[in-house]
Every structure is written in C-alpha cells, then in structure tokens.
Specification:
The protein is mostly helical and about 525 residues long. The protein has 23 helices and 2 strands. It comes from Deinococcus antarcticus.
C-alpha cells in the first residue's frame, strides 16, 4: 500500500472485514460462474480434445510463427512507449488547450472495429492507396501495415496509461528538482520517470498483449508470410481441424497471457492521480515536442479513419455516390445493421449487470485473484474461445444464446475495469458516514456509492457497446447466415475483387464506425477507461 494511503477497512473490526469480503465474493459469484462456463470450460475442452501435441514447439514453422508474434508485439510496444511516454509526460506537465478533449478522442481508435482500421490502412498504404500512388511505395507485402495497425489501436492505450503514471508524480517534486539546478530534461529523467515506471511498464505489457493476441489485423494484413499464432490457431481449428497442434499453440498462448496479465495487475495496483493546478504553458523545446508528437499521434491514430470515410465517396474517376447507393439499396444492409445493434444491446445488458456486481464484489473483497480474473476475457483469444464453444457445447454451439454469451464475455471486462478504479477511489469514510446517519448497507450504496460511480459505469458501458458492435473473431466462427452483422458483411465484401466491392466495403465500414461513435457518445459519462 502506498505510504500515506488510508486503509479502506479503517474503523472496521475483524468480523466486519471478513463479512464484507464474504459479501464481495458472493456478489462476484455470478460473473465468476459465467466466466468459468464461457472461458475456462471451452478452453479446457479444446485442450482436452486436441491432447496438446507438444511436438509442435519443435516444428521450425510454428517456432517461426511464435518468434514473429513476439517480435511484432515487442516492436509495437517499444515504439508505442517511445512515442507515447514523452507525449504523455508533456501533457501532464504543461497547460495544453484542448488536452481533455484530445485524451477523450484517443479512446476512439480503441473502439474502432478492426476491419474499419484494415480498410483505412489499405486505402492509405495498400496497392492502390493514396500515399502509395503519391510516393510509389507499396507496403502491402511488408509487415509495416500490421505494425501501423497495432499502433493505431495501442498507441492511445500507452498514452493514457503513461499519462496516468506521470499524473501521480507530484508537481512539487519536479519543482524541487528544478530549484536544485536540474534542467527540465534532468528533472523528468531523474524524478518523474522512476516514479511513473509502474504506469509505463503496465502500458508496455498491455500493448504487448493486445498486439500478440490480435486476430483481425494479422488475418487481413499479414498474409501467410506474417501470420501470427492467433491466425495459425484459427487456421488449424476452423479450417484444417488439426486440434492437437492448435491445442499446443493455445496452451502456450495461455501461459504467456497469464504471466503478462498477472504482471499487469501488480503494476496497476494502488495510486491515484495528483491534481496539477496552474500548469505553465509550454514554450521552446516543450512546445515543439508537444506539437511534433501530437501531430504524429493524430496521423497514426486518426488518418486511417478519415481515409476509410473518404474512400467511400471517391472512385477512380473522382467523387461518387455509387458505393453508398449500392450499400443502401442492398436488401441485406438492414439485416446487418439490425443484427449488429440487437446483439450489441443484449450483450451490453448482460455485461452491465454481471460487471457491476463483479466490480462491487472485487472492491469489497480486495482480492488480487478477482482482479486478475476480470482481465482474462480481454486477454484470451476470441477465436480459441469460439472453437471451444463448438466443442464444449455442441448443442448450443449454433444457438442464439451462445452467440450473445460470447459477446457478453468480451464486453464484461470493459465494464469491470472502468467501474473498479472508481470504486477504489471513493473516500473510505463516505459509506461509514451514511451508516452512522441510519442508512442500511444497501441504502448507503444506493444513495452514496452508486451516484458517485455512475459516470464510470456509463463510460465502461460505452466502451463495451462500441467494442462489441465491431467484434469480428468470435462472430466469424459462431455466426449463421441469418445472424450476419456489419463486420461479417464487411469481411465478405473485402473477399470479393474489384473497385466497386472495395468502395462498398468502405461505405459499410463508415456505417459501422458511425454506429460505434454514436454508441460511445450517447453512453459515455466521461469516466470510462481502456483497462
């Protein structure tokens, strides 16, 4: 526990502590059972069915896939750290107009559907991309597009976590270093950097995991040459039915995921931001750094979105509406849109109920195990889970409840990870003050706890809904033709040759992007976090 932090159980007797911890575990029980049934059982069934052929790890081909997966994830994490950490530090130390809005907009790439990002990067840097035509540099057969796609999604994660880490460093410490003769760079290196290392390390681990477990990006942009373990798992299970090899890959991926997730939970425990008032305006090198890093971040994180929207209105002969007409007059589009919204809202309802109870339980129980479990659905391969559903629940595998349950599992951790920090940040004596005024435990939570954390609940729900609207991996395995969503319709058009299909795919991607932005804007209460 950080020095000076008041224990949350101050004033409680030992029986009170035990009672609240027991209550916490009971509140978390429904989500725990759900996670066991929808995560542990399917993965265990997949491993049992395949028998885990460990000889796979002696095969040079699969070792090469493992090496490439780790290499591209490490390179992405290092690049995100080198770009995101300096920008986050400058944002935390200087008054920047529009800073709050910029940090909020950085959540947009995180909730952008994967295939929208794929189309945007292709429109910019693909064989017929605009920058390719201008420079003659075709990046379609290189890993560059995959790395840029990883950065598109994960650079905002690094910036936000690093910003949180630097915000925990008191401005007085920086000022003391400066008063002793340290330059701004020396104060940042010798004071701010060591104190913010947990936040930076957490950002590095999370970006590494997200990049290593990504499915849609390497499937669409990597090709056979740059396929990752996630793509290999999908190929071995869904296409080739080679479960023994796939089980070994899944087992190795699980070990990596559990170790990294455990490290992440250790790095992010404790500490709150220190409010910094009267920050100075950036001048000189600081202003130049803010401008340069800010522009580079905007290009990486937002230019693919602009590209995909513009591509839906531009053909080889110039501006056109033919792509949008094709999408709007296609009788399947209302079905795709309706299914996407319906599935997303049903998943949101389940995730909000289960996630709210789980976050409250984890807060009361103060259990590191509950903290770890809440992250696992984010860190486990959706493709592996979807295949596990087919094996563990063959009767339910092609059923509507199973599809919604899979969506709910993906949305659940986003609600928990937004709500739990807000609960932990509550002043510990507020609840006790309500109890001393005669309120019951339930009344105290209803009148004090819930109103204070409601903005965080809204923010987490916004992240969850916007994310599941564009979910692709599990949908690709579990969906039926009558359950097609905007993501599967978009993927189908991408598989067809021709400029018209590409243009219609961009128009459909714009619809999906607009839907995700609308959902996020309507629900977001200003407190949602990425993790």
């Amino acid at each position: 526990m950080p020095r000076g932090e008041v224990p949350w159980w101050t004033g409680w007797t030992t029986p009170d502590v035990l009672s609240r911890r027991l209550t916490g575990w009971l509140l978390a029980a429904p989500a725990l059972v759900f996670t066991v049934l929808l995560l542990a059982v399917p993965l265990g069934r997949t491993l049992l069915e395949g028998g885990v052929n460990l000889g796979v790890w002696r095969d040079p081909y699969f070792l090469g896939r493992l090496g490439w997966t780790l290499l591209q994830a490490t390179f992405t994490a290092v690049t995100a750290l080198l770009l995101g950490a300096p920008l986050a530090y400058l944002l935390s130390r200087y008054q920047v107009p529009g800073k709050a809005l910029f940090l909020r907009l950085l959540l947009l790439p995180f909730v952008t559907p994967t295939l929208v990002a794929v189309l945007g990067l292709t429109a910019l840097l693909g064989p017929q991309g605009w920058l390719t035509r201008l420079t003659g540099l075709d990046l379609s057969d290189t890993p560059t597009l995959l790395i840029l796609g990883n950065l598109f999604f994960n650079l905002p994660v690094m910036i936000r976590l690093a910003y949180g880490g630097f915000s925990r460093v008191s401005p007085a410490l920086i000022g003391a270093a400066r008063s002793l003769g340290a330059s701004p760079w020396q104060a940042a290196r010798t004071v701010a950097l060591p104190l913010s290392l947990p936040g930076l390390a957490a950002g590095f681990v999370l970006v590494f995991l997200y990049s290593a477990l990504s499915f849609g990006l390497p499937l669409a942009l990597g090709g056979e040459k740059y396929a990752t373990l996630e793509v290999e798992i999908y190929t071995l299970t869904a296409l080739q039915l080679r479960l023994s090899e796939a089980s070994a890959l899944i087992a190795g991926q699980l070990v990596l995921t559990l170790v990294a997730t455990w490290a992440y939970t250790l790095l992010t425990r404790g500490g709150v931001g220190v409010p910094a008032r009267d920050l100075p305006r950036a001048t000189g090198a600081a202003r130049t750094g803010l401008l340069a890093l800010g522009v580079l971040t905007v290009l990486i994180c937002f230019s693919p979105l602009f590209a995909v929207v513009l591509r839906g209105f531009l053909g080889s002969a110039g501006p056109t509406l033919v792509y949008w007409q094709g999408v709007l007059h296609d009788g399947q589009t209302p079905l795709l849109l309706g299914n996407t919204v319906r599935f997303g809202l049903l998943a949101l309802a389940g995730a909000t109920l289960l996630g709210g109870l789980y976050a409250l339980g984890a807060w009361l129980a103060r259990s590191r195990a509950l903290d770890l479990v809440s992250l696992l659905p984010l860190m486990v391969s959706p493709v592996s889970l979807a295949v596990g559903y087919l094996l563990a629940y063959p009767v339910l595998a092609a059923s509507f409840p199973m599809l919604i349950a899979a969506y709910t599992l993906l949305a659940l951790p986003l609600v928990v990870r937004s709500l739990l920090p807000a609960l932990r940040a509550l002043p510990p004596r507020l609840h006790e003050a309500a109890r001393t005024l005669g309120a019951s435990g339930w009344q105290a939570h209803r009148t004090v706890t819930f109103p204070l954390v409601f903005p965080a609940l809204r923010g987490g729900s916004a992240l969850a809904l916007a994310t599941v609207l564009g979910e692709f991996g599990a949908t690709l395995v579990l969906t039926r033709p009558e359950w097609a969503t905007l993501s599967t319709g978009l993927y189908e058009r991408l598989g067809r040759p021709g400029e018209r299909n590409l243009g219609e795919a961009c128009a459909l991607a714009s619809v999906l992007l607009l839907l995700a932005i609308t959902a996020f804007t309507l629900l977001d209460g200003g407190e949602g976090e990425v993790t």
